[in-house]
Design goal:
Number of strands: 0
Low-confidence stretches: none
Structural class: mainly alpha
Largest sheet: none
Mean pLDDT: 92
């Protein structure tokens, strides 16, 4: 199993261009938000339990992957996922159609992402391995962590 550092190095190989990186800083959060919004819009059997929906259930499954990378990445991604569910809940509560808002954001963000990779001259990492769809948000998070001084301890480093 790859460490967080290995995932980030592999992901970073196709994310060197400044324009592509800037696009990713905007679009990855929007793709995550809209993806979760699309899943959150699916009717669920959980009743009126606040924030319990298919998106939060799916996010718990994603957190297993993040936990295998790093406990600090796991914690940050848990917060990021909770924020997405809360934002999508607010969008739905506002009366806007969450599914259609999410489709619009998703479409525009992916168009921008593919433009960024055209500028980069390299294809998106997820075309080689779908796990990179989960690595992208964590890749951004590790830069935030570096900026504020939070170490990204990999699971392998934590075991030594």
């Amino acid at each position: 199993m790859r460490t967080a550092t290995e995932w980030f190095e592999l992901y970073g190989e196709s994310h060197q261009n400044a324009t592509n990186k800037a696009i990713h800083w905007i679009c990855i959060p929007m793709i995550l938000l809209s993806s979760m919004g699309l899943v959150q819009a699916i009717p669920h059997p959980f009743g009126d339990i606040a924030y319990l929906n298919w998106a939060s259930v799916a996010w718990v499954a994603c957190l297993v992957f993040y936990g295998s990378m790093s406990w600090t990445i796991f914690a940050g991604m848990a917060l990021w996922g909770a924020a997405c569910v809360a934002i999508n809940t607010a969008i739905a509560a506002s009366g806007l159609p969450l599914a259609w808002v999410s489709v619009g954001i998703f479409f525009v963000a992916w168009l921008a992402q593919f433009y960024g990779h055209k500028v980069e001259g390299k294809k998106p990492s997820f075309l080689n391995d779908l796990q990179f769809l989960l690595v992208g948000p964590a890749w951004l998070l590790q830069f935030v962590y570096q900026r504020v001084g939070i170490p990204v301890e990999t699971r392998a480093a934590a075991q030594n």
